[in-house]
Here is the input.
Amino acid sequence: MQYSVTNLDGQSVGSIELADSVFGVQVREDILARVIQWQLDKRRAGTHKTKTVGEVSGSGVKPFKQKGTGRARQGLDRAPQMRHGGVVFGPVVRSHAYGLTKKVRALGMRVALSMKAKNGKLVIVDSLTAEKPNTKTLQAACNKNGWKSVLFVGGETVDSNFALSARNIINTDVLPAQGANVYDIVRRDVLVLSQDAVAQLEGRLKND
Here is the structure.
């Protein structure tokens, strides 16, 4: 499909042919949910931990005799029902990551890109470069285009001056094409791709 190409000032500079197999697939929210949940689970630290009976401090001596005290019988001060005792079935240090097939991950990217294109939230620009770091200029361009929450995706590498310009702008992210992912695309309102990014993404997703 044909899609217009602009510059950061919003002026039209031509058009580009987008692959329907990447930017024109059916929007499936179930696939988006699966891929986003996979991403978020994979990044969890998993460092939550409680102490079991074998880890809390205390001896293994019976706290008091079995009979004649009028109290319920107890065998261990470190038992879960005792004060300062261990925790039963508490969380342990572990990885929350799980596998997701390459086919589903690639489909998730196609769906995310297609959703932005369908909703008019996809912008293709000629390039994402800056002669020098200048946050004020980039902020003015974002305000002019009405971009309050935006993800910029460059080509194989991100222009360092452009990345520095965007670093202090709230709700603005900059990624190389290789780092583009479903979660970051969905969490920002507008997706801005350079022409190099389009070529990189189509090359990456057409073959998956």
